[in-house]
Amino acid sequence: MTAEKKDYLKPYVYKVEGAVNFALYDMLNGKFFQISPDGSVEELRETLLKEGLIFETSGIVPNKIMRSDMWDIQNNLHIRVLQIRLNGRREDYCWSRQKKNGDRIFISDRCLDQLIEKCRYIPVNIIRIEAEQEDAYKIEKILREFNCKKVEIYIETCLKPDRLEYFKRLSDGKEIVNLEDARKKMKELKVEIFNFFYSKFFNPCLGHQVAVDTNGEIKCCLWSEEILGNIETDDLKDLIIRGVFDKYWELSKTRIEGCKDCELRVACDDCRVFAMKSSGKTDIKPPYCEYDPYTGN
Fold first, then answer.
1. Which of the residue ranges 24-28, 106-110, 155-159, 201-205 would you say has the lowest mean pLDDT?
2. Of 129, 271, 128, whose CA–CA distance to 205 is shortest?
3. DSSP string spanning 235-248?
4. How far apart are CA 105 and CA 48, in angstroms?
């Protein structure tokens, strides 16, 4: 007797339920498909076969295996993104980059030295630098002293091409990104398997992020108003171990009203500080999001 054939999602395809619709995430090609189950089963099946998201078999179904060399997201003693502001041209929030009035304040060499020393034994993946052209020697110092994979530089007056090339030569294998160029390509970003799984447990914006402002203030984000410590007086490693950042790091989309029932919650980003400043609440979706997961519109 021949076993009945059944349809299965391919091993690299993951389904995320929403209140009305659902989404299928194709990790092999970095795409996701938002699907309304209103149509007939056969119509849906034809669509999924056409997109290569399902296969028909009566045999063994392969397991969904997550790469073994992926970052251990249960290990809290690391920093995914370290934000450093080298000068004090204050901004209201990262989306608007509106300047506040007041004199510019530059981070002191002492503060920068303390930051480098206190991060020496903490794994850092990405360093995001807010700077000006005159901060070049401090950027050089960060490139020389920090052991990280990637450095993103945002310079308000635009990073000159020759200076960017110089930083790349100095970087000793680090990936150097001009953040101004990266922002222009945000619509081209794809769904990545690490971000997909990471967003299930942590906030995609604030998760494992540490920020240090010009006067050494330690925050969850440069645009946050809550000060969690100071790099000159506090041990950064101790702050992480004691869970000082956890209330921000662990604020995944599954804990945010208006996001937790959305099928796109593991695909979109989340400017949490922007949402908090706009609403006064930590667990409500950003006001710029106009999608309603309860109506599918």
1. 155-159
2. 271
3. -HHHHHHTTTTHHH
4. 56
Q: 49: Cβ–Cβ under 8 A, 6 or more apart, which residues?
A: none
- CA–CA distance, 32 with 50 (Å, rounded to integer): 14
Domains delineated in the chain? 6-57 (no CATH), 79-249 (3.20.20.70)
**Number of neighbouring beta carbons within 10 Å of residue 197:** 18
Cα-flanking dihedrals φ and ψ of residue 100, to 5°? Answer: -90, 160
Q: What is the DSSP string of 25-66?
A: EETTTTEEEEE-TTS-HHHHHHHHHHTT-EEEESSPPPP---
Number of neighbours of residue 296 by Cβ within 10 angstroms: 14
Does the model's pTM come out above 0.85? no
